[in-house]
Structure formats: C-alpha cells, structure tokens
Amino acid sequence: MVGIQEQNINSQQEDKKVIKCLVWDLDNTFWDGILLEDEQVILRENIVNIIHTLDNRGILQSITSKNDYATAIAKLEEYGLKEYFLYPQINWNSKASSLKEIAKLLNIGLDAIAFVDDQLFELEEVKFSVPEILCINADEIGKILDMPVMNPRFLTEDSRLRRFMYLSDIERQNAEKDFVGTAEEFLATLNMNFTISLAQEEDLQRAEELTLRTNQLNTTGYTYSYDELNNFRTSENHKLLIASLEDKYGSYGKIGLVLIECQADVWKIKLLLMSCRVMSRGVGTVMLNYVMSLAKTNNVRLLSEFVSNNRNRMMYISYKFAGFKEIAKNDDLIVLKNDLTRIQPVPAYIKFQAS
User: Fold this and answer.
1) Domain with 264 in it
2) Is 3 part of any domain?
3) Which of 10, 78, 205, 332 could form a Cys-Cys staple with 154, CB 3.0–4.6 A?
4) In the structure, what pLDDT confidence band is assigned to residue 11 with cuts at 50, 70 and 90?
5) Residue 176 and residue 183: Cα distance in Å, rounded?
C-alpha cells in the first residue's frame, strides 16, 4: 500500500512539473548552419514565434552553445533576439556545467530547466550528468509550444513581465557589486515598498502559480488550485494573504503567499512561501512577523506546519530565528509553535503597508 501511495505522489508531482527556463543550443538548433564556419546562418522556421510565445507565457530562456561569445551575441543582436536570453553561456565548457551555471544564476532548480540541442552526444551527456533536466532533441522543436510543461494554466501579469523582472534583478545585482558599504546600507538605497493584503479574486491565478513554482522558500510544498484558494479566500476559518514588492528598479510582482487556518483559540500557518528572487531582501521575515503580530492582536496561539525536503531548509531556519519551536513531528511533518513574545519590528529600509 505504501508503494502505491508513493507512486501516486510521484505521479502527481510529475503532473505538476513546470519548466521555468528553456535553454537553447545555437548551431543547427536555433539556426541552420555553424556560425564559425559560415556567418550567414538562417534562423529555423517558426523560431521567433516560439521565442515570443514562451516569453509571453513567463518561461525564461537562455543559451548554452560551444561558440565564440562575441560572434554569437552579435548574431543574436542582428536578429533582434539577444534581450530574450538571460545569462547566456556561450563558451567551450560542457553543456552540463553551463546548464548548472544558468540554474545557479537564475536561482531555480535543475528540474525546472529544459534543454534543446541537435547533438545526441550533448543530450546524452546532460541526461547522464544532470538527469533532472528535461532534454529535447532539436527535431522536436516544432512540438515545444504544445508540451504540457510549457503551458502554464494561467497567464498572469507576473508571467508576462517575468523576463523584465529578472533583467531588473541583474541591474540590482550589478549595483550591489559596485556598492561600498554594508548589506543593510545597500538595501536602504533600494527604496523598497512591501505590501501585504488579503488575497482578492484577481490575485488567485498568481497565487496558484506561486504554489506550483516556488520550491525553495516554501514551508510545506503544498500546492493549491485556483478553486481551492478561492474557497480559502472566502472561508471564515482561513486567511489567505498575498504580498508584493517594488523598489526603484521596478516591481518584483506578487512574491509571497500565506495560508492560515483559523480556529477560535489557535491559528496554524499551513503554507508560507516567498519567491526566490527576494531571498536577500529581508521581506520574508517581515511577512512572518506580521502574521505573528496578527495572532497576538487576535489573542490566539500560533502554530505552523513545516514539511522538510532537500530544498527548503532556509525556511526552517527562518522559523527558528523568528522564535518558533518544534512541538510535534510525524515523519516529514513538523509542527512548530511561537509564544509571540519576540516580534521584530519592520526594518527601517522597508516601507511596509498592510491592508
């Protein structure tokens, strides 16, 4: 029976798999021909439509190509497509190492990456070295837009703007590298505005997307459908909170979600998640302390569920730093409690609004 349950869980997880970034090879994949042998390469049929469609769906794109960087970038600029590719790895390294670097720079899991190449050797090397990555033969490019993992259920405003948000992140990272001073002093230069509010119906598509896409900064890994989230939103026994963040470089979009189960004398956090893009901004702590202050105002005990996996340890550490202590454990499910005696104020560098 346990084996069947595990198979069902694995099947459900596979059904909910989402690709966050498609990484392209160039020669005889993205275009016909080998650039270093003939600069008159020709884009493959329908490639521009595929690039634009994936971009509108919120699927990021990058490149791993064994090529001369300057020559390849110049060709992409000539076609007006350079801006669509984040952190391109155009070098002579192995494709597997380049894919790992892209995942690291985007701060996403390897299992959220798809890789398309025309060379069987390259595909087999990646399958062997990084089996989490979805490998696609260039012969199948025409089928990419129809693949379930390339078709998010909803196209939200955050989806359409995702690439621009990452480009803003690159600006922030470059500014941080050049900044002389402490991390807190740099954060103070960003003019951050952080908002938490009760989720409205128009937030639910993005809320569902967050539960499906966010793995690292996620306390339980629970995923909820639009209808389930709408039931929580309208339930007297639940609070569904959504958070958004912006700064002088632009909007991060809706980047946080909290689901609280509310009983007469005890509240339980069923889910708390934050987008990985805001990991270093301190807003996760603000969100958690806001929930703690709400619980204290309502004179209830505050519990939280935590389901450990190999990727969300940072959230467990956040709970511990906020004063949560384990009171029960059942397999991977941990129940924590906070006595609400130590609620941290919002840092001075964040302008915070709750509604």
Assistant:
1) 187-354
2) no
3) 205
4) very low
5) 8
